[in-house]
């Protein structure tokens, strides 16, 4: 059997014809459709998860918790002091991420109401670790009883066992999308800092679901708003394509299957100078951040993979001076990043999500006892993850940018900046008259 | 003019038609072809570079040096003791990276001969920082005199100025491909460790140059060898396609233009269990590593962006048991990684490189004094970076894997492993009878 | 000579004569005893705390929370999987740290009952972040109303304001001993790992309170037990000296004053080879860990400051071979650490704690409005911190050792060890027949 | 014999009588004075050293190299750009550290001339990794032939073998004082930054050699100068005590023995607000830094161990307002640090160094083959390390302060500071009219 295993090369993105070839692929396999009795799993049923749970150096986020258990959340260490912050600031994005928000997401019911336990006092951050906790409420462990016997295909079950040597059941533990609650909460803080410091906005939307691709020219990144994105349940800013995407999801949902798609994310008014020239290039940090989300398969920014078809003279972004005397690029194939460092143009990126691996169709697999078997997953799942992935991608991008903003401040703003070449970070903030006074709603509480 | 700047959306990978549209794009711009006298730059001519120069946690690499100056190299801290290591081990990969190795690379002449200054004694690593230095020999600073006046389009010139506030000339400092010497040297050590511990091999090759795409079925990842890759100057394992790729590079080389392409990288016999479930997913770490290389635009693994066109039932990799009683997957759309953790199948990834931004054609740009001007780069450059990027991609992948191997060992092998679910890392090594004795050539020196 | 040692207080900047004047100093000062109306502080009353809230690289602890607020606790990331762990394991040490445990500690009442929210399943660690939360229950914010107007001398009030620019009241926020709950909980896990892996024990006790010094010869570090330490409320293993220490505390307690003291900590059966030769010397890591505890003023190990009075021939520890054929030292002035690395002898260290800065006596100080004033602290406080510091010192030592154990494993046990020179870490564990089975109490739950 | 090994408790600082008792201690041991033939060591003679070779987070120093080999040095990553820097700036401190500088240091001859390979251009830092290399020139490996057979008492020989499993000879590899060259070079850069940013000065001096203790009142920390310290070869600012110290060193030097001592270090004009409240308290970071130097046994700051003899009312530093309207403390038992954070007063600390372990007297020890033997070290060594330790302690303190300065900047200066409570860091710099122009000597080069 080993040869049949190894004979299947992975699929690259560029080969259009290989997509169609792909569809006929599973039927090629001559798999023995063994049926057998699975012996009852032992009494030790463990959830499994792991290290690598912190992100960032200066604005450092640690998430904890799993799909089933007391709850999930995060600790943010290193948040600048004196930032107005309320639980409502986090809840907004948590509600965008929440399961059960529409018919195209998992029917699992969680209100995902967060509480800030530390680090905020009288509505203002104090510089301390901010601990945010969201209790779990709708746990149906029995849904997973069958899955605990067998490795779900393309899921984390098998690899967690290989790594930790304990058995992972009940929602996949840390591989659950529920872990991303801590990221979205921390990301909401990061987005607020970016907005205050430099008017920077991070916006993501769905640009592809299965075969439905939103043409680029239908979205103007200069004027795109959160309202446009949130105007429909699939989070595509174009209403007509949103309908097509919803239809594509409904089509697979009813037959227990799933589809993938692409989330596009932009950063508008990004400060210049973020990132660094070598290992911490801004694009590398964004790629790691994006591909740390569940179900991701690829990342590109600027011209991306399509840029490989161009020549240098076609691809280069020529410089010019705009009406405000600022150095700009005429085109933006660089995606707002040159040499690993932001240049002030719109940062854009695209993240590929595979179809959800948990599906309601019968699949062949093996049990932990290495017996071949069939599996039909009964847990609730999203037929397509991209609508709920939108706030997750925004959060990860914002976490990268705040962390790099602070790194830049530490190294390059210690001495007075060189005004001929550099823009002050705080200028835009000062320009906008922000004074970090308690907001009105806070003032009313005092 | 600001509106024309902002009106150019970035280019995504999937839109085939946008590729053709793209080509006519530069001519669309109504750019004032101002010609003017550029005032002499001030006497302070600085090279510029920056922090973020370390990679990895356990096997920690710090690179230093720039294109022009005393030399370049790296310090590797945390290397396991008792690994046989000679300068020749590093030189092999440095020669694959070296400029001037063929007519399709930059004619800059550097022998790139490395010397190990510390951390190795009597041909064996001692656990200490390994410092490797490669002196610079062929510096032609005067080639850059004109470029020092103006920002080269899509190069790091402008962003370095924005970040550091000092002037970057003479080869772009840390943005030079010369910085990657330290990575390739460290990567050679990492590859040797992987080979010893688990028979793991890291191999990369060129799978696309401009419009020439190597069909996947022409390469068998199970049997691919370094010799096949090194059999031609473009490093494509298929001789016929190699010729086409070389022709494509020659076509742009003669007219001073450049092209991009794709490097595919595989990891064979990767240990199971590397990576972790949340922020340090193996794919995220590999993406960051790959996109920290100069000129990269995108990363995908397994089914990648093409995987978004499939349904879950088409995409999932079913499990089976192979002839050795090991759990395997029948297909490998997961690219050897599930839930952020390696599953023992071949890890595969594809990295997109843009066309080299330094070209010999006239381009419009601005000077540091914010005057519009024209620029024709006279420095030596690669018409296509991908042939020399092959050892760089291998190096970065190997650095990630060794670092994760050590992390896994620290957390998950402290207590005796669970043999029902886990494979011992050292088994394969023991099985192969490796005893870490000094190799024959070392013994002769003693 | 001790008197000469202690008679020379390290007194800093303000003056030579203040040395002799030291004890009578406050009355010497001709301070204008201005009495004035303090203007009401603004309505923004913030608790303040900060970054730097994580400890360790592999076994990584992040604490959160402050004296007043929702609660305090920690997240432990990187804990090895498959370690039996119950809340009761943590509660034991939390009870030793708890306020209100005796008449010589602060009367603040907190049960400090912990709950594990994540990372443990069916009584076994799973490798995931372990979040431990202890809610605050006995908050008396009004006790601090007066202190909010003025900086308490030698407390963190002033420096927190200088750093964060927000006002710190209500128990001093993160400077509260309450923050150490998270450390003690994490330390309990670390101690359990050390015990399992190598039979390593970490024990601390009070060896000095004010002028009462426990003679070294009264404690045998080879046989010292936790029961001996816990046999009295001051945690001194010698009953007679314990009485003297308690009397010394009572003497200052009744007049609202405070005293300092010394905690001695030993590590028995420490694995050989922990620590590293340069910046991460084991003694440096232990010193940082100890001096991260509130109210600490000094750290020494082995011969310590007294060792400076010896010659090399008096000080050196000669090597010998013991009855088991193991290399040992005859004396232990090295304190179990040579060249930054543990040698298997008992590690010993002494940590100096200053007298508690919060006292019930009138002191001169200034308000935040820079007006001189008088202050009598009314908050509850410990007359002497050392009895409750004992489990804190143990916890910090254990956190260092586990982290270094994992670091050593990652770098130096990847390849088969060299049995002629090295001891296997897991040998002792295997020798003691530990199988990491669920303990009996857990088994009963299943 | 094991019991005799374990019966020797470590010696604490306070016990006066134990000091005298200590001197007769070695003679108490009934050691079998076995004499035997040592078999020739195997041909593999390795130097050994290790990980943990990086220090700092933002201003990150990595040292490399060992006593014998190509050379030693460091890489500094994260240095702020636009700092004037010449090799001469580093050489000044390297000369203070250099062996052979006087009769009371090791006669080993090394000029220790440094070269900057990267990161500085036209006399100004560029933000890139600064690599500094000092070649080794006076290697006498044969001096160590005898020592390679046996573990030198209280040296790193045995523990390095235990950790790495390879044999350490030839100067002890990374445990050599030669490793500190990289620290001193990096520290010189750090001192220059501190001076520029805030007029901060870091000065250390010898305050004790063996039994010769410099009375505190003889040094005024407010006015102490580098010239006073450098006015004699022992680096004690009081000429009379300097003579006594030199005599004490000469006394042991002639008979092949060694003595220890204490280095006092102060930081004047330290910015307020450096350090953080929990794990990264400034005192903890300084302690780790100091105890990472070879031969250290203890660290204290402010009142130190002597502070344990005071009551809270005696110990507290009362606040007042100085003539410039700034909040100050009347006394400085806090040593310039309260709650882990600098308060602007003089930071002071004392570091204990043991007598050099390498001595010219016969000692009993064991060989690597576990045979008891005698040893007389023949390598050149310092009879007392403290005179050369002075620039090392300064360097480590400066590295901590710069790193914390950058951390503070990243977190707490991102938003406009609160002028009522906080001082701007750059104020003092601006006030002193520093403009970061190229210095005159640089200007002349241009």
UniProtKB/TrEMBL annotation, chains A, B, C, D:
Q: Which cofactor does it need?
A: FMNH2
Q: So, what pathway does this thing act in?
A: Metabolic intermediate biosynthesis; chorismate biosynthesis; chorismate from D-erythrose 4-phosphate and phosphoenolpyruvate: step 7/7
Gene Ontology molecular-function annotations: chorismate synthase activity; FMN binding
Q: Which reaction does it catalyse?
A: 5-O-(1-carboxyvinyl)-3-phosphoshikimate = chorismate + phosphate
Entry GO CC: cytosol
This entry's comment on the bound cofactor is:
Reduced FMN (FMNH(2)).
Does the keyword section mention Lyase?
yes
Q: Does the keyword tRNA processing apply?
A: no
Keyword list (alphabetical) reads: Amino-acid biosynthesis, Aromatic amino acid biosynthesis, Lyase
* EC number from the UniProt entry: 4.2.3.5
NCBIfam families (UniProt xref):
aroC, PRK05382.1
- Family the UniProt entry places it in: Belongs to the chorismate synthase family.
What this chain does, per the record? Answer: Catalyzes the last common step of the biosynthesis of aromatic amino acids, produced via the shikimic acid pathway.
Tell me the PANTHER family matching this sequence: CHORISMATE SYNTHASE
The protein in question is named Chorismate synthase
- Record the organism: Eucalyptus grandis
Species lineage: Eukaryota, Viridiplantae, Streptophyta, Embryophyta, Tracheophyta
